[in-house]
Amino acid sequence: MKMPPSTLYRLLCGCLVAMALCIGAGLPHGAKADPKAGEPTPTLTTTIVYLTKDYQEPPPLSLVDKEVKDKGIQGARIALDEDNRTGRLLGQHYDLMEVLLGKDANPVEKAKELLAAGQRIIVADLESADLLAVADLPEASNALIFDVRTSDDVLRQEQCRANIFHVPPNWAMRADALAQYLMWKKWRHWVLIVGKSPADEGYAAAIRRAAKRFGAKIVAERPYVFEAGSRRTDTGHQQIQTQMPMLTQGVPDHDVVIVADESDVFGDYLLFRTAEPRPVAGTHGLVAVAWHRAFEEYAGTQMQNRFERKAGRIMTERDYTAWLAVRIVGEAVTRTGKNAPDVLREYILSEKFEVAGFKGQGMNFRSWDLQLRQPLLIAGPRALVSISPQEGYLHPKYLTDTLGFDQPETKCRLTAKH
Hints:
- α4 links the parallel β5 and β6.
- The chain is of the alpha/beta class.
- The termini are far apart.
- It contains ten helices and 14 strands.
- It has two domains: 227 residues, Response regulator (Rossmann fold); 118 residues, Rossmann fold.
- The strands form three sheets. The protein has a seven-stranded mixed β-sheet with strand order 9-8-10-11-12-13-14, covered by helices on one side. A five-stranded parallel β-sheet has the order 4-3-5-6-7, sandwiched between helices.
């Protein structure tokens, strides 16, 4: 009886898997069969350090969002499993050295110890000041440091470093991605509400830049000056219900209210409470992000489900960027067959490199500021709305370079500062 081609294909795949399992059986960990000598030879082992600190973070504004204490590291662990799954077929192995520091610990001192021990591949889940301090260590001059936490534009501009690869989108990318969608909707008139923190002002500056870049107009700008009281008391909603209309009343006619609240103090409270019935966007409401719990395109559903099975919770943006950083290392080691930092750096910055990230296209780094190019998700609280770059925004090489600082705009000069 003649077998259908699909059946033959499945049988062939099964035989190949069985052969691989038989060949691998009996070999010690970290070894592979040498067909010439008949003896096991050492596997190429790559150690990736995950360095983070227990920073003080505000609790979520809503009880719907549970406080998460292990953002980032869970994504790195899942990526490590994926790297090793591929590595087993190629004689490669990956270890994740988890360095999770307490609130009073000094990441710089710990980084010195790690670098002295020969660790040169670091996934840095660090705030901006600590990230720069680690990168500026003389011992770190030839290290590969993958930033998975910050969005600061200054770290991609005046304070860029030659040894820091930035995986999360910066504020300029987020603002441009949102602006493109708002312009596509013809929502050209914006009211900007800005919080008190330096991060809030950093995002607000990116929004002002995006408005000028894409032809929108900020018709009014208001600071958030109310003192944040207890947001979960019986009368808290009454205070908020009074404050938010006061904050947004008396402004010129506008299409959308954009909020700059990176510190997550008041942004959610603007939804459905503005003086005029207008959509809210920016850091809250309609947002531009690298990852979102509702994303399911390009096999995103499989990624979401796999993460939830492993971690027991939803995948946050920092989980995604940490996952992506570890996958970038795995991709570079797989393609080059080596794990020396200088070899990996050269390959990651080459035209050959790209990493898949469930966004329908391979992603790579900008050579001028070491920022990862990537499409951004435009999402509401519960659903995906769009993906930027938007149709019609063109670029001679990469459409994703319409988001953030393109090469002619950059103030980055990649030098190690020691």
